[in-house]
Queue: 3 jobs
Job 1
Amino acid sequence: MIALADACGGGSADTEEVGARKAACKSAPDFSLGSPSRTPDLVAYRPAALPPEPVEDLLPKAKYVLEASVARVLYQGDKPDRGGRKNVAGPIPPERCQVVQLDVTRRIAGADPGTSITVVKPLAPYVLKAGQSTSGTAFLVEGGDPFPIVLGRYGPYPSPEVEAALGRGQ
């Protein structure tokens, strides 16, 4: 239980459910690729932020492709350590890992997640907020245990771009 409670750098012993959410964040990929908390020396030399991954590269990995609204933020990890560096040229600093509940408004492709799905938003340079408008954007979600993982370095993709990549564009 204690290992689950502090798996994402969090504080005290929590419920088993919260511990599982923290563990999900801890095992999620780091889409910041070169965040100061993981590779401080690389960040100082990168001239610019990394571009978003092409949607065509992510679609084969996605178990769910859906439009959804952010219903609740169930867990929010600690802000990543910046390694004491300030005003360093390089990629956009990563934001915390989150576990969020998405209310599905439309399934575009992939498996049917039902009316809502709990997912991990990995360490990446964006944060999801409850009630946030995600209209016209599609979440690409990879299967994962205990929770599926949102793909994409900068969050959801424009739905028309995803549908075009799937061959359904206007």
Note: The helical segments are 2-5, 16-27, 40-43, 55-58, 159-165.
Job 2
Amino acid sequence: MNERDELLQELMDVIGEEGCGVSCEEATLYKDEEGWKMMLEGFMAPWNLGHTLAEAKTRILRLISRCSSASLTTSRVCG
């Protein structure tokens, strides 16, 4: 499993299939010179997740813990 697949799996593990739905399946995860970024359907800009895989996983957990709802399909930013 590559790092991108690990991050997608982390989303599914943290949010769950019901809460994740299409957003996680269609999440764009990529790494550029600034580190890992995630673009979800319905959001205008990508979220910076961190430079390493560990930082990205931690950031995903923080973002999810700040959401009042497990669904990331809303148009409001949970972070």
Note: DSSP finds two helices and three strands in the chain.
Job 3
Amino acid sequence: MKFMPMARRHIITSIKRNIKESGFKYIIGLLIDFHKDKSFREVLKVLDLGKRFISIAEIVFLNTVPLVVDFITITAYISHVINRYIGLIIIAIVVVYI
């Protein structure tokens, strides 16, 4: 696993814990008829989907969004301070890189 700053690691673990607790409370709060009709495999499948959702949320909110915000901020700042054509060049380079 890559080195993660302490704040990021704390955010990830607290998000995972909150989602797990919410899922557990939801499953426990369901009526007994629901539990009789479901097999253990189906419950594990739902929990696996929850883990996948956590992974996707981590990628989107903790990796992609900060990168896009940084890119927009830097481009706007450089366009304002230096020249708007430099900002367009930076945008073109990033688009080509992606």
Note: Residues 27 and 33 are 12 Å apart (CA to CA).
